[in-house]
Design a protein that fits this description.
389 residues, alpha/beta, eight-stranded mixed beta sheet, 14 helices, disordered C terminus, inositol-3-phosphate synthase activity, NAD(P)-bd_dom_sf
Amino acid sequence: MTSITNGASRYQSEKVRVAIIGVGNCASAFVQGVEYYKNADPNERVPGLMHVDLGGYHVGDIEFTCAFDINETKVGKDLGEAIWADPNNTIKFAEVPAKLGVPVYRGMTHDGLGKYLKEKIVKAPGETADIVQILKDTHTDVVVSYLPVGSELATKWYVEQVLEAGCGFVNCIPAFIASEDYWDKRFQKAGLPIVGDDIKSQVGATITHRALARLFHDRGVKMLHTSQLNVGGNMDFYNMLERERLESKKISKTNAVTSIMGHTLPADDVYIGPSDYVPWLTDRKWAHIRVEGQAFGDVPLNVEMKLEVWDSPNSAGIVIDAVRCCKLALNHGLGGQIDGPSSYLMKSPKHQRPDDEAREATEEFISTYAGLPGTAPVAASVDAEAAQN
């Protein structure tokens, strides 16, 4: 993470202006969440939020500027309408105005539409919109990517647009950008922040599994075998029936757990990944986690649990902080991966650390960079230096 002095002159300090790539269930939950919590009391502990106010930005300070999709059911509509369009099927927990004044433009396809998604989605006619110009014209601060798993080429194409437009980036999918030196250096050179990769849900399978793995390690129990089987009924799970698109997802979820175990398990003793598509679950996800270990006296100790969540709101509870952290970094001219928030909010950051340490680093980042845009950072690379020492 590097620091340059472009913050005060380039960006609006009073709002967090956000563009969305991919208007699916996660986008729906994010948009609903901003509406739901826009009047939350920052002096109270509010269920569902880690921070009502984050570094001076209230949830209600998040504004949506534009969105991009390829589905004919969404392109050309207002974002307030598109979040309810087929095949979206997440829970409705907030009334969102149908006219937010935020258009959904025709995005780029590339490899974003796999063989299973092609059965459900018809591409909108017309050319790809001028992404760079739209981001500039709308004064977008932060771009959030919700592209389908396996969208490697599409992700890299969009990242180039984000860099050219001069925006921060939150990468919610397991296409490795923030964690790769090449892209990290590109963002550093541009003086633009990135939070990534692959969103770690509020209380999802990954962070729960990590907690169990760390508990075994801290209490002296040797983990011998572990598995995490996930099923769901949204388009994310339908897309992941195409196993060729799953490699990065399995790597991301597996490394997120094994990186904090304290020892290495043979590959055959670890299975973590999506498992199947169950349509009637809609946007609900069931995660079945099992951990087998060797405890005191070498006797067996096994833990088995089932987690049931609404998948997309679980993600939105984290993105709502990620965009505000990205905005703080943007204000202060920080470029490259934002290390503390990435390690706490994402499955595959550049530097893995236990979640309690990641949370501490994130809170330190927020307290360091809270305040008016352009003010001198207290420590430009605190998180990155700590991770390397």
